């Protein structure tokens, strides 16, 4: 029954894609719009096949490769002079890598090395593609939460996590403020809000544990 279901889905997807290609070129080859529903149909077929085989690593690999190929085609069609598809390559490669590693991805070494590689990747893109503004601080800020959160969750040091997380957020907003708009001091407002996090953790969690 499952083989019939898979065969029906694959055959239906192929016939639908062929039909869309024919309609696209009969009605006018510009723009080429059939690739958008074709992508959804291919992803659906891949998803059903991998679910039946219970091979989620294969699903992540094939999906990532298909999405990268799709973005390359879109990049070449729309703005071939600027390779913006490169910005999405890192997360699309990180996804199947983490799925393949499985429980190994919960280790601090994987988190630290993975974060360093991603930050370095975006730093290189920043320098080569748009050196005028250090936008690498935005993906770096997001990625640094991975090892920071993993480290404190493993040790159940939630109060310390709130302190270091607040420090990370404060440094991020100060950096953005200084680089983007140094004449207007606005970073104090989000920092003021963030400081309530470790303060509330201290009085309502950490201090109560000390009193017990």
Main traits of this protein?
212 residues, 10 helices, mainly alpha
Walk me through the structure.
It is a single chain. By secondary structure, this protein is mainly alpha-helical. It has a domain at 157-212. It is 80% helix and 0% strand. It contains 10 helices and no strands. Helix 1 packs antiparallel against helix 2 and helix 3 (56-78) runs antiparallel to helix 4. The chain is extended, with a radius of gyration of 24 Å. It starts with a helix and ends with a helix.
Q: Which geometry do the CA atoms define?
A: extended
State mean pLDDT (0 to 100 scale): 91
Oligomer: single chain
Structural class: mainly alpha
Low-confidence stretches: none
Could you write a compact summary of the structure shown?
The protein is mainly α and 212 residues long. It is built from ten helices and no strands. Helix 2 runs antiparallel to helix 3, helix 4 runs antiparallel to helix 5 and helix 8 packs antiparallel against helix 9.
